[in-house]
Amino acid sequence: MTVKRKNKHPDPCSYRKRTYRSRVAPGDLISFEVRIRETDLQILAGKELRDKANDAVLLYRSQLESYIARHPQFLTSLAPLPLDPTAPPIVKAMLVAGRAAEVGPMAAVAGAIAEYVGLDLLAAGAGEVVVENGGDIYFCRNQESVVGIFAGTSPLSNRVGVKIAASRLPIGICTSSGTVGHSLSLGKADSVTVLAKDTALADAVATMAGNAVLPGKSLDSALAKASAVPGILGVIIIRGEELGAWGEVELVPL
Fold first, then answer.
1. What is the pTM of this model?
2. How far is residue 246's CA from residue 193's CA, in Å, rounded to a whole number?
3. Helices 109-123, 89-101: crossing angle, 10 deg rounding
4. Tens of pLDDT along 11-46?
5. Which residues share a beta bridge with 243?
6. CB-based contacts of 172: which residues, under 8 Å, 6+ apart?
7. What separation in angstroms does the CA of 23 have from each of 1, 18, 134?
8. Closest Cα partner for 183 from 130, 243, 109?
9. SS3 state at 143
10. Domains observed in the chain
């Protein structure tokens, strides 16, 4: 599975070609896509569960859209918002992730949807599942896997992968970029990839760390900020020819 940049707010009338998906090797899993408005998922599963995935996307989009209609700041805020015990679980997860990473809750939307859809498919008997949502991945397999990192025009793009042991799964693997895609990033990283058990948290922290990658500054400060967040397992930052990593990451050449 190749990690791509976030694309949280694409043109709802058209889907950008995600050519990185052609690099995915599904093995013995069934590959299919689900596209509903801004949500564009590639899914690998032990069973053909397209209809179940479609229903899950509709459910979680409906919960988010209904919550945003009552709380419009949830959509626009770039700062953490208060926790809301009355919110649906996916909204609560995004609020918690945003507070942990000190960013707005929508920084966690792609990771949250990936994980919640993945959990529904596992409950439906998928056995194994990988849900990729614009570079934010919920990964639950029964075997060692390698996740490649797409980093735009960096010479390291698609040249470096992260080996994930079966014992560490399920896991969330999320990527943010300041040079590729439509996602809002205040930094200049070609890619920031974060690993955590909580995919919404990985997504939010990838945004936070990406914001901290500034021109002419060492990658160390961004790595330190991300590593200080409880629950983060690993971080990989690529900027041009530079690569910095922290935590439980085993990098392999592709």
1. 0.88
2. 11
3. 140
4. 322 334 555 555 666 778 999 999 999 999 999 999
5. 238
6. 111, 114, 115, 136, 137, 138, 139, 195, 196, 197, 198, 199, 200, 201, 202, 203
7. 7, 10, 14
8. 109
9. coil
10. 2-253 (3.10.520.10)
